[in-house]
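Handout for the seminar on molecular recognition.
Each group receives one record of this type.
Step one: identify the two inputs.
Step two: read the structure output and locate the region that could contact flavin-adenine dinucleotide.
Step three: write two sentences on what you found, then compare them with the reference statements printed after the record.
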Amino acid sequence: MEVKRKDIRSVRHCDCTGCSACMNICCRDAIIMKQDAEGFIYPWIDREKCIHCGLCEKNCPVLHPFGKRENYTPQVWAGWSKDVDTRYKSTSGGIFSELARLFLKTADGAVCGARYNNNHMVVHCLIDREEDIPLLRQSKYIQSDINYIYREIKAKLDLGKRVLFCGCPCQVVALRTYLGRPHDNLFLLDFICRGSNSPKALAAFLVMLETKYSSPTNRIWFKNKTSGWNLFSTRIEFENGDIYLKNRYEDPFIQGYIRYNLYMRPSCYRCKFKERNSIAADITLGDFWGIGQRDPALDNDMGTSMMIVNTSKGEALLEAVRPNIMCRKIDMETAIGGNPCLKKSPWKNPRRHRFLSHLDRWGYERCYRHYTRPTLKERLKNAYYTTGHIVKYMALRILSLLGRKINQSTTK
Ligand SMILES: Cc1cc2nc3c(=O)[nH]c(=O)nc-3n(C[C@H](O)[C@H](O)[C@H](O)COP(=O)(O)OP(=O)(O)OC[C@H]3O[C@@H](n4cnc5c(N)ncnc54)[C@H](O)[C@@H]3O)c2cc1C
């Protein structure tokens, strides 16, 4: 079988989101997704199977951004699940779990979301039992593998089942593009997305911890609330019973993600799915950062979700789940103020590529130490500003002492 890197000339490597729409739509199964050296999946094409029908290009959400949007003014809500356990175990306020429950209560419902597989990699899967909601619950900060899930969703929709899909904004647009037409029985959730990290970076981080704790990983729990929602922690449980627990400022994996932007997918640094008119989901979920400053009653450090209702279908969904959640309407300015990722992609660390290419040889710890150390230029800049501050402070002290002396001598 001759497999070549897929050559969609108009999609640049740095723009491909790995959404897998092309692989799902290919009627010849000529496309597979393969990991590159950085650990991200990209489409590859089997030249012998390809009949050059062009379906993959026509269904690429990067080439053909989501166009038709309902004429609806988005509404922003802050809220959380009334079930304390669900809220504690969820990333934000547990709204996803409450919505999922709504679908799985009846026999004709199914929910699709991301879960960890046995190798601690993330894959999308479909569930149809309420007991399986914990598998999908919680944010997994690496890119999920969609595999052939769009095809499975289409099969369910064709059978008349009601499906709730939750994924990154690019995956939601990809599913809509793949389906080609709106389905009344499909409900779409996305989330405010900072970006997806390389599965290779998480694997290297786990290897580092497994060596330190001398045990394989049992469970990963990002944004654990032991130290509160605002100070969210990373909790890794090991098979020998040991637990790694570090808050957002102490955990190198989270610092590498949110402070140094070291290992996100290239397309996430220039995300095309942040503009309001490119949003395809019925409801966008997120953390309502900063809500406590506007209304302290809405932040008791247990997790507050942001819900942006984008369509009338989303409004109906929120109405249906309302008996199980607490929610209050908020203005869009407050939402954007606390969550810049709603509008802006994160900056790209110039050392990102070197970090990922040295990961295999050096391991996570050495790479992290090396590539988060300030450069000579940064150190000189810091020294310049620090010296400037010291000089300014001393000059002010000398001037005030001189002033006092002159005052004393004139009063004498
Ligand atoms: C990679 C990533 C980046 C995010 N960045 C931000 C941000 O910058 N600002 C912000 O406010 N919120 C962000 N979120 C969203 C936030 O962390 C919560 O997921 C969201 O608020 C929903 O919380 P919840 O308590 O309702 O549900 P949760 O129980 O947290 O439900 C999570 C849902 O997200 C899906 N999911 C989890 N991981 C992935 C993944 N890797 N790929 C696709 N789907 C996934 C699950 O299937 C589930 O459906 C991000 C989430 C992820 C996964």
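Reference statements: The two ends are 100 Å apart (CA to CA). The chain has three domains: 3-58, 75-197+264-342, 199-262+350-372.
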